[in-house]
Amino acid sequence: MRMYDLIMKKRNGGVLSDEEIRFMVKGFTAGEIPDYQMSAMMMAVYFQGMNEDETLSLTMEMAKSGDMLDLSDIKGIKTDKHSTGGVGDKTSLALAPMVASLGVPVAKMSGRGLGHTGGTIDKLESFKGFSTEISEEQFKENVNRIGIAIMGQTADLAPADKKLYALRDVTATVDNMSLIASSIMSKKLAAGADAIVLDVKTGSGAFMKKEEDSFALAREMVRIGTGAGRSTMAIVSDMDQPLGFAVGNALEVREAIDTLNGRGPKDFEELCLTLGSYMTLAAGKASSVEEARQMLVSCIADGRAVNKLAEFVEAQGGDKDMVYHPERLPKAPIIEEIQSPCDGYVQRIVCDEIGICSLILGGGRETKESSIDLSVGLVLHKKVGDAVRKGESLATIHANDREKLEAAKSRFLAAYTINDMPVTKKPLIKGIVNK
Questions:
Q1: To pair with 79 at 20 to 30 A between CA atoms, which of 215, 231, 334, 397?
Q2: Is 82 among the catalytic positions?
Q3: pLDDT grade, residue 116 (50/70/90)?
Q4: Any catalytic annotation for residue 187?
Q5: CA dist., res. 65 & res. 166, Å (int)
Q6: Nearest to 222 by CA among 203, 260, 195, 245
Q7: What does the pLDDT read at residue 364?
Q8: Active site residue: 67, 89, 122, 161, which one?
Q9: What does the DSSP 8-state code read for residue 119?
Q10: Cα 225 from Cα 387, distance rounded (Å)
């Protein structure tokens, strides 16, 4: 078999067999197929596309290119949740303890952030002493003992995807539905969960800006997960404005704690309840979505959810008292209000610009080597559809540097559109995709 022939076959619109895809992925991972040939293949795929069988085959081969986490030692139906990312997306921090408090095993691998805010691991490190650098044995033991564990992605998790994504990133071949879906799902399948719930974002702060593209990606990923024998469903949710109010690592942790205490923003709570209902249903702990939702509401009301977060933090070396005293989380030295320049209604927020504000303040990474200031960020007070008076606070900014504060403030104000016309608020949940 020759890579040259496979490139020509795909360039001419042919369908690659499982054997041909296996040869290609194994050869590229081992360094036997050079970058220039795989670049040519990715461009051929970009223009010709892949059918469902090819996409599933590519996903499975990338998943099997490294470690496949075996979670069979963990009792029950193991669940995982993946978000395609957005601004203020701290969902795992509240969602995982909520469902774990109902006896749903949550075995999750997460990464660090590269962009406007930190990833789940960065945010969790707001708890003094917390570590995701735990062994596979400790990971499984924690899930069996307390129902939840989050560990960093191993270096050998889907290495073919890491290598292929780096190549796509510099050859303008990222934006292809089959390649995007297979990249995400290869890591999820390698992580070993039995049931996968996907949160696919859509809007100005999302990877997929158009709703139809987000639904197409959701359908593709659900097909892959189902084809791989995993219970898989997706929720398409709005990211035309930040999720909740807080944007920034420790600020988002505090908001997640507020939510577990029943005092969180309504949109964030709604997303956690929706995702959590499907995770609980998939784990066989409820007979309907409605029953699962009521169970989740109860675990917040009676304190089980916030206590589970404290138990989880302690199990991974963190200071659990910070869950009950979030005022001890990292704090920025400079806190100021950003005031509205006029009366009116918030018409629009350019969501990804709010994320850039957090990055300017030091809350994100521009490169993998960048360090993060966990204390900085913004807390919004006005969102789309809200009325506002001139001089009223649009947001509170948390900063460690005056120059950065002014740069972020200027960018924040440019991201808000305020005028006289009332606005109808859009629904957070756009739709559900399942098999």
A1: 215
A2: yes
A3: low
A4: yes
A5: 16
A6: 195
A7: 84
A8: 161
A9: -
A10: 43
Strand partners, 237: 201, 429
Range list of β-strands (E), 91-161: 106-110, 148-152
Average pLDDT over residues 25-45: 96
Strand, coil or helix: 295: helix
| Annotated catalytic residue, options 10, 81, 168, 254 | 168
Catalytic residue among 78, 81, 82, 90: 82
- Quick one: DSSP state of residue 52? H
Residue of 211, 274, 240 lying closest to 352 (CA atoms): 240
The encoded tokens of residue 7 equal 């490139």
Q: Which residues, including other chains, have CB under 8 Å from residue 172's CB and lie 6 or more apart? A: none
Q: What is the pTM of this model?
A: 0.92
Question: Which among 3, 11, 67 is positioned nearest to 35, based on CA atoms?
Answer: 3
Q: Which of 116, 163, 187, 219 is the catalytic position?
A: 187
Decide: 123 and 165 in contact? Cβ < 8 Å: no
Among the ranges given (36-40, 156-160, 275-279), the one the predictor scored with the smallest mean pLDDT? 156-160
CA separation for the pair 379, 252 (Å, rounded): 9
Average of per-residue pLDDT across 155-175: 87
Alpha helices in 64-119 (DSSP H): 91-100
pLDDT of 174 over the 70 cut: yes
The yes-or-no answer on residue 204 being catalytic is: no
Say if residues 89 and 243 touch (Cβ distance below 8 Å). Answer: yes
SS (H, E, C) 184-217: HHHHHHHCCCCEEEEEEEECCCCCCCCHHHHHHH
Locate 305 and state its tokens: 């959810």
Tokens of 287: 């007979």
| H-helix or E-strand spanning residue 394 | strand 393-399
Distance CA 263, CA 163 (A): 43
Among the listed residues 92, 183, 186, 204, the single catalytic one is 183
391: alpha, beta or left, given left = phi > 0 and alpha = psi -120 to 50?
A: left
| Pairing status of strand 393-399 against strand 429-433 | unpaired
Residue 368: what pLDDT?
65
